[in-house]
Structure prediction request, 200 residues.
Amino acid sequence: MSSTELRSQRLNQITHEPHARLDQLVKAQAPFASLPGYTRFVKAQYLFQTELQALYRDPQLAILIGDLPQRCRATQAAADLADLNAALPAGLPGAVQQPSQAEALGWLFVSEGSKLGAAFLIKRAEALGLSQSFGARHLGEPEGGRAAGWKSFTRMLDTLPLTAEQEAELDRGALAAFERFTVLLEHAYADAPQAETVQA
Prediction:
């Protein structure tokens, strides 16, 4: 990392390729073309957020991020599935287990960053008759606003003293998070009828 490059900027750069691949995968599944297709998308989100619950509840991480437990969206995703009359999906083997603190921050970087993109996704969900109080809660505006929440997280991340080994763990965590969400998304759509993924 150069003296002028922020850590959060480096993470954005190294995750650019897996992020772009994931975006293409989401577009290919057309989750906002129909309610059944969207429901599968929410199941992937629910699985991802549920897997990260232990990180959001970690007392050591909460020292760094005071409102960390409130940032998790597993409860909202579960409520969305209830709104959509969908059962909660069973967990998939391969969830992150007891990562180091730096690696955990890499996972959280991806989870928190996705809230920025959710600002665009909720508009697509509204076209399906959903809102941040019904069916699209997990895409809703966080308390205090998306930008403020993201800035406070990256400000903490950019100023945290880390060793070279911890920097590498941070990078690994962020890359692993994109890889894991890709696996969960593919799993959620694995048995989808073709009609669900055809753009309207």
